[in-house]
Amino acid sequence: MCSIAGAVSKGKKGVFPVLVDLLSFMGHRGSDGFGIAVNGQSVKSKSIKELRSKALQGSLGIGHSLLSITGHGVQPFSSCDEKSFLCHNGQLYNYLELNDNLKRKHSFASTSDSETILHFLEENNFNLKKFFSAARGVFSCAVSFKDHVVALRDVIGEKPLWFGETSEFFVFASEPGALQRVGVSFPRALEPGFSLTVSKKGFALKKVFSISDLKKTIPKKHSFDSLFKSFQ
Predict the structure, then answer these.
(1) What is the pTM of this model?
(2) C-alpha of 112 from chain center
(3) Residue 140 near residue 154 (C-beta atoms within 8 A)
(4) C-alpha 26: how far from its chain's center?
(5) Using CA atoms, how far apart are residues 48 and 53, in angstroms rounded to an integer?
(6) How far apart are CA 121 and CA 100, in angstroms?
(7) Triad 195, 144, 160: Cα angle to 5°
(8) Is the peptide bond before 160 cis (omega within 30 degrees of 0)?
(9) Is 159:89 a contact under the CB 8 Å cutoff?
(10) Strands 202-207 and 41-45: what pairing?
(11) What is the pLDDT tens value at each position of the chain, 232 positions in all?
């Protein structure tokens, strides 16, 4: 269990302090590493206290606290062109299979399944539906760009993601209590299979994938041999 958080300023106020606060409130979800990316720069640390002593200037960012399960890598991860960053809570079960194609063009900085998500999106021009179709796993994740952030939640809804606003920020996090602690009065849950785009203009919701779409990805024919091979 990890935690992710994001913030976009409505004005010129920096988001770094509120991201640190959000991660601090969710520290019980993971303590193997902490990181924040703000406007194209990132910092990582071993503790919230160490992270709080650092600072990045900017009005848009994402943050992450790590509970290392599949591989290891302190987030946020940077894309190969260093134009986007990703934070992820969950597990991508078929990441090794996806990596077979990605490693031909992309440089991996870790053994984490989370990094696969960013490189897959980068390779496919950030086509969200294509990622939902290819992914086998549970996830809530966020990708930051120059002027907006896009957050996703798996179609089953296994991993949580909540969002809301204060007088100064549009924010999201893995737990509603964290949002309430920074001033959000009524946190809303992102629905399964939806994307959430966050910018200075506010929130934009879009349904990307459904249970019906998921059923279409399931092979029509099954056999003992194929089941056995899936465990090798």
Answers:
(1) 0.89
(2) 13
(3) yes
(4) 15
(5) 9
(6) 15
(7) 45
(8) no
(9) yes
(10) unpaired
(11) 789 999 999 999 999 999 999 999 998 887 778 999 999 999 999 888 999 999 899 999 999 998 766 556 789 999 999 899 999 999 999 999 999 989 888 888 888 899 999 999 999 999 999 999 999 999 999 999 999 999 999 999 999 999 999 999 999 999 999 999 999 999 999 999 999 999 999 999 999 988 887 887 776 666 656 656 666 5
Which residues partner with 188 through β-bridges?
Answer: 163
166, amino acid identity: T
End-to-end CA distance of the chain: 26
Give CA–CA dist 26/78, Å, rounded. 23
Q: What would the DSSP string read from start to end of the chain?
A: --EEEEEEESSS--SHHHHHHHHHHTGGG--SEEEEEETTEEEEESSHHHHHT-----SEEEEEEE---SS--PSPEE-TTSS-EEEEEEEETTHHHHHHHHTTT---SSS-HHHHHHHHHHHTTT-HHHHHHH--EEEEEEEE-SS-EEEEE-TT--S--EEEE-SSEEEEES-HHHHHHTT-SS-EEPPTTEEEEEETTEEEEEE---HHHHHHTS-S---HHHHHHHT-
Residue environment code for 22-37, b if the CB has 16+ CB neighbours within 10 A, otherwise e:
bbbbbeebbeebbbbb
Tokens of 80: 């190969």
The residues, ordered by sequence, that sit 6+ positions from 222 with a Cβ below 8 Å of its Cβ are none
Which token pair is 76?
Answer: 């946020």
